[in-house]
Design goal:
Strand content: over 45%
Oligomer: single chain
CATH class: Mainly Beta
Largest sheet: 16 strands, antiparallel
Number of domains: 1
Radius of gyration: 23 Å
Number of strands: 18
CATH architecture: Beta Barrel
Number of helices: 5
Helix content: 10-25%
CATH topology: Lipocalin
Length: about 350
């Protein structure tokens, strides 16, 4: 987490959320086997564990260690496009500079704790990410808040656009705050396919396999936009539809996608998944003199890709994850895309009994 004036970013990623609870309940049930209640708890835990982690061991090999140390470099990028439709439409591309982070992660089974350094120290940002990848189940939760450093990278439909930009990104003081909260879950149907082998480093895919993926998600966004802070020339040309003060989004989605893990050679894996989602959005736009509430169905996308070497003792690789969200209703559209590239290396120790 980074605050204004600090030179470091602090982050905690806890993948213990669900699995640790199951592990605890399972252990309790084993210790008190005489109780009917504990028997029910144990059977429930066993069933959930079967659903989440049922694998074909001829295709997937489990990890045999308790702990890991993993240094990681990550690059984070985001971009907003705000515009109007029609013959005389206008649009602005708005994005901050990318963020470069260096993180040291220490993990125990499903728990990974990371301390991150912001290598750029270029803008205030608060960010929290947590992910859980079992062999067939993935959960992602994130919160992001940016308050400064946004730039206009593109202007279309403005007579003065080329003159204002002059080939360089232009500071956008009007976009003052962006907040975003997201939760997504995905489940792979094929027990020969492992999410964790590509994205979590906790299993090793031994033979190539793919799977259909069913997912669901929720995304909340809030944009605060003060067009009075724009350059006077740009402000004079801005269409009324783009002069909103604030936009709030509630996005509910269901996705059906496909993932595949290629075993390129022993211990070397390339994985990719693509999950298009049908999204129902409720949007509230606040203008100076009135408010507008709208609803929309749209198509959003999430993509994951990975290249990983893992011999069940040492591992290294890179992952890329990207999200896109779209709202397009009447004369206004707002589109958001962000992604994270991670490059990492690590090793395991303390073998499980």
């Amino acid at each position: 987490m980074r605050t204004k004036g600090c030179r470091h970013t602090y982050g905690i990623r806890a993948t213990i959320l669900i699995v640790a609870l199951l592990f605890s309940l399972h252990s309790t049930a084993q210790e008190k086997t005489g109780s009917k209640f504990n028997k029910i708890v144990q059977e429930t835990v066993d069933f959930v564990d079967y659903v989440l982690n049922d694998i074909d061991t001829t295709y997937i090999e489990k990890n045999e260690y308790n702990m890991t140390i993993m240094p990681e470099y990550s690059y984070r990028y985001e971009h907003y496009s705000i515009g109007t439709t029609g013959k005389n439409g206008q649009s602005m591309g708005i994005a901050p500079d990318g963020r470069n982070l260096l993180t040291l992660n220490i993990g125990w089974r499903w728990l990974i704790v990371g301390y991150s350094f912001d290598l750029d120290n270029n803008r205030p940002m608060t960010e929290f990410n947590t992910s859980l990848y079992s062999t067939r189940f993935a959960l992602d939760l994130f919160y992001r808040k940016g308050s400064e450093g946004y730039k206009i990278s593109r202007l279309d439909g403005f007579e003065s656009g080329d003159k204002l930009l002059q080939g360089e990104d232009w500071e956008c003081d009007g976009l003052t705050t962006i907040k975003q909260l997201g939760l997504g879950v995905s489940y792979a149907w094929n027990k020969r396919f492992s999410y964790a082998a590509a994205m979590g480093q906790s299993t090793v895919q031994r033979s190539s396999a793919g799977s259909f993926i069913l997912g669901a998600g929720y995304n909340w966004q809030k944009l605060t936009f003060n067009h009075d802070k724009l350059d006077p020339i740009l402000k004079a040309e801005l269409k009324d539809e783009l002069k909103f003060k604030q936009a709030k989004f509630h996005d509910f989605s269901i996705s059906v996608g496909y993932g595949y893990n290629w075993v390129l050679s022993r211990n070397l894996l390339a994985g990719i998944s693509f999950e298009p989602a049908i999204s129902y959005k409720k949007v509230k736009l606040e203008y100076t003199d009135y408010n507008s509430s709208q609803k929309d169905l749209s198509l959003d996308f999430m993509t994951r890709a990975a290249l990983t070497y893992n011999n069940n003792k040492y591992y290294a690789g890179a992952t890329l994850e990207s999200h896109t969200y779209c709202f397009d209703k009447n004369d206004l559209y707002i589109r958001d895309g962000f992604g994270v590239l991670q490059v990492y290396a690590g090793f395991y120790f303390w073998r499980k009994k």
